[in-house]
UniProtKB/TrEMBL annotation:
Gene3D superfamilies in UniProt: 2.60.40.4070
Protein name (Swiss-Prot/TrEMBL): FlgD/Vpr Ig-like domain-containing protein
Occurrences of domain FlgD/Vpr Ig-like (ranges): 185-248
InterPro entries to which the protein is assigned, alphabetical: FlgD/Vpr_Ig-like, Secre_tail
Any coiled-coil regions, as ranges: none
Pfam families associated with the record: FlgD_ig
Transmembrane segments: none
């Protein structure tokens, strides 16, 4: 019959098992059986978003921006059987399938400023609308998304009132600022008419590392978006040269920028 060995939970390393053989009358001298136990990472367990409830409406005023008003978001705890692992939660905020990691924290709640909500709306070319937020957790190896995602309706018309007379005459993609940058930079572009916009970041090898907009409908105007130097998985990118490419209707332009840490 086979030999069954059961190490302690979460054990890894070389397990030394003394073995003897007997015929019923005599017993052999013991010898050691060395068993190498390879560690396997335990994935964080699922968790849920808590507050604010999906569908919450938020009115942002200039006074809120001046007073640095914040919105508390919270979620339940995940669990990792590997006690030495530290769990880091990351909040994603966006709309139209385009989102950005805005906070990384070991806590299960965080305060997001109204100014950040307004900046997110502005980067999407809106002064009000539904923003989707969710959270994912990582132990440094595996990543698990929350079991749900919530929407909040943000009205920032008081802050982002649009002057219809400020419409550019031609398409343009401007040099990012600052450049070089660390860790964030602003990319400005001009839209003389309503159109769908795709704005993508590439590394020096031509690999797509981040999509800021993908065929996203935007109204005419002077637009900008802030990039935080992270890839589409929310991980910081290494120092180096990157390229950003915009396509708006038939207009296509590419510029380069430098991330310097």
């Amino acid at each position: 019959e086979g030999l069954v060995v059961s190490p302690n939970p979460n054990y890894h390393g070389t397990l030394i098992v003394p073995v003897t053989v007997s015929d019923g009358d005599t017993v052999s001298a013991p010898f050691n059986l060395n068993i190498v136990v390879v560690p396997v990472n335990d994935t964080p367990l699922p968790f849920n978003l808590l507050t604010p409830e999906s569908g919450t409406e938020i009115m942002v005023t200039l006074m809120d921006i001046m007073n640095n008003t914040t919105l508390e978001v919270s979620w339940s705890s995940s669990f990792d059987a590997d006690e030495e692992d530290q769990l880091i939660y990351s909040i994603k905020l966006g709309a139209f399938g385009e989102d950005t990691v805005v906070v990384n924290t070991p806590d299960t709640s965080v305060n997001i400023t109204y100014e950040l909500l307004v900046a997110t709306l502005d980067s999407l070319g809106m002064n009000q609308g539904d923003l989707i937020w969710t959270v994912f957790v990582s132990d440094g190896i595996d990543t698990v998304d929350a079991d749900n995602q919530f929407s909040i309706h943000v009205n920032a018309v008081d802050v982002l009132g649009i002057d219809e007379s400020l419409i550019p005459e031609v398409y343009a993609l401007h040099q990012n600022y600052p450049n070089p940058f660390n860790p964030t930079t602003k990319i400005k572009y001009d839209l003389p008419e309503n159109t769908h916009v795709t704005l993508v970041i590439y590394d020096i090898m031509g690999r797509q590392v981040q999509t800021l907009f993908s065929n996203h409908y935007q109204e005419a105007g002077y637009r900008h978006v802030v990039w935080n130097g992270q890839d589409r998985f929310g991980k910081p990118l290494a120092s180096g040269m990157y390229f950003y490419r915009i396509q708006a209707g038939d207009f296509i332009r590419v510029r380069k920028m430098v991330l310097l840490k």
